[in-house]
Design a protein that fits this description.
The chain has 131 residues and is α+β, with helices and mostly antiparallel strands. It has three helices and six strands, in the order E-E-E-H-E-H-H-E-E. It has a six-stranded mixed sheet with strand order 1-2-3-6-4-5, covered by helices on one side. Strand 2 and strand 3 form a beta hairpin. Helix 1 packs parallel to helix 3.
Length: 131
């Protein structure tokens, strides 16, 4: 099976992992994305702001592989603060729809003690079926 690394144009290279891997069968496996921009700089230190950027990063990788938001089949969210996530559900939903529209793939949310990047408040993995 042929596997191709997917890296959106202009993004700083990932260190020690691939942002996305596209298989011959057109399944795109997207590595955990966090709320920094293409230059690996956090523009927001707010949960909802980081969540929106994280989803935008996922969409950028899907589009770089030739896909669209509607090709995303699964999202696994890793969050560091359950209380904030629950308290801000309306804002989370609004930010989600700004990026993903009304496309709701299979999702899981996992609460974790921390993420590798200290400033990160959320990390999301995704799987898409492109084409």
């Amino acid at each position: 099976m042929t596997v191709k690394s997917i890296q959106p144009d202009g993004w700083a290279p990932a260190k020690g992992y691939a942002n996305g891997m596209l298989t011959e069968g057109k399944t795109l496996h997207i590595g955990g994305q966090i709320g920094w921009n293409k230059d690996q700089v956090f523009e927001s230190h707010d949960f909802v702001g980081q969540m929106e950027q994280t989803l935008a990063n996922i969409v950028a990788i899907v589009e770089a592989a030739g896909g669209a938001v509607t090709d995303i089949a699964r999202l696994t969210w890793f969050i560091t603060d359950k209380r904030e996530y629950l308290a801000r559900q309306r804002e989370v939903g609004e930010a989600y729809r700004r990026v993903m529209g009304r496309h709701f793939p299979a999702m899981s949310v996992v609460v974790v003690a921390g993420l590798i990047e200290d400033e990160a408040l959320i990390e999301i993995e995704a799987t898409a079926q492109v084409g």
